[in-house]
Amino acid sequence: MFDDIEDQTEQNTKVKYDHLIKSDRTAHGKVSDIARRKVSKCIDYLLLLSSDKKVYSRMTGRQFSMKIAFVTLTLPSKQIHSDNEIKSKCLNQFLIELKKRFKVARYVWRAEKQKNGNIHFHILIDRFVPWSSLRDIWNRIVNKLGYVDRYREELKKWHESGFKVRKDLLKNWDYKSQLKAYETGKKNDWNSPNSTDIHSIRKIINIKAYISKYLTKNGDIDKSTGEVSEMNTEQTGRIWGCSQDLSKARGARVVVDNKISDELKKIVDSNQFKSYHAEYFSVLYINFRELQHIGAVDLFEAFAKYLIETFDFSLQTEIISS
User: Which of 43, 55, 227, 296 lies at a CB distance of 3.0 to 4.6 Å from 263, suitable for a disulfide?
Assistant: First the structure.
């Protein structure tokens, strides 16, 4: 029954999402400078518009704070469909279901190729989604193309005589962890592959820089050094996308009169900004909440009005139970 409902939902909203995913271009996994600036702007708005959330876990009885979630989706078995087909039939439906089931309003996604040639996705979302629900949804969706079934067949064949260690993976996946994964997989008949991950970014001081590095990198990040290696594998279609309102974000506009000119001077005097200067213009970067602190009231109100009218912006904290 639920599969029928989900298929109908996909059809009903297909037009809304397809233009963000479908593309016939071939990319080398590279994000251009222009695209990098666009992604950075989308991340800025997503971080700004995402409210602080207090999440209460019924399982642990504890409460924790979060603002955004950083999700990774992978294919459980070797990719046999085109990149565009994976995006249109799997990523597309996944984003639809996050919106319908968990009220995810805004997101930014990036597609990459793994070293094994499989496409995978990093997605920044503005809501809390339980990890188990996330995995169940993605596994069900990709198995419409048979990826979980093939994973099950491969693992059953590999372990047909009992637990068998993958020596080629020992460097990053030790014996004890492999054994634990084997016991878990055997218990659920290999029907729930570890195809999703939720990155913890609560302890990252500069969240924007951390996320931007992941979503605009042109290669693999070495977690021990933070260095980015080259990535040469081609992929077809768009390599990143975002929710429609983020793609249309343009910012507030004001006429520079004497009062605004005085407020711009306050920004310069505050030293709470970064700047970029070209031959015919200059750009000042400042956290809009700092505008209040330095007395740039008109600029603050103009941008706040833009956020409210365009995005229904709110500074309220949400309480969520999981």
Answer: 296
